[in-house]
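Continuing the batch. This is chain 6 of the set; chains 1 through 5 are on the previous pages. Same settings as before, nothing changed between runs. Recording input and output for traceability.
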Amino acid sequence: MKQVYSTIFFFIIFFIGCEIAAERDNRSDTTEDVLQEDYLPIAIDSCATEDSIKAKGLINLQEINPDIRVHLRYSGLNNFVNKDLYGCLTNAYVQPETAEMLCAAQQELSALDPNLHLLIWDAARPRSVQWKMWNTLEMPIAQKTRYISNPRNGSIHNYGCAVDLTICEANGKQLDMGTDFDYFGKTANTNVEFILVQNGELNYQQLDNRKLLRQVMRKAGFRTISSEWWHFNAMSRAEAQKRYEIVE
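Output for chain 6:
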């Protein structure tokens, strides 16, 4: 009889031990799940402006040619509105064809002087930003349209087919072009530069630097405008409207 009790006691202890082990295993699984969940990577919010531009099929310039430098002036306060208009957007986007033309311009510039780089100040620009610029610049309409396209019509920038840029050295030092970006005055004009030199408003080095920029950009197929030495169009607005969707 004593042996029977011993056997029963053994099975009771064995059963209790199994239950405790099972409970411990369950607790371990639960704890492991919690720890794994706690250490999952935190998703970083994407840039909505950049996402809307990429959705139109535009491409990041520096991903295809890191020799082209980028410093978006509207992603900061150093611009004519003294406001950060782009926020999280720090990359320059353009249409693929425009990107190819810029690569050709950089290649031409590098062949002339390996120490020189194109420096992009502005590329694809959402029309919502165009409206902010338009409403900020206070001057007569006839004068205003020399510097900013009416958002109702759309800017070539709004299609990713225009760029604002200069030339810099490998160390980041910009060539002297006579005026800063978005200077709204005659000194920024390209069609009276000889007179500006004669009047002492530009010097010959500044003029030569502008000519170098126009040389490499025109050879790549870009077109200039008379009011801004830094602005270049890959195509007309009519052609951009025909081929591409506007970035809103």
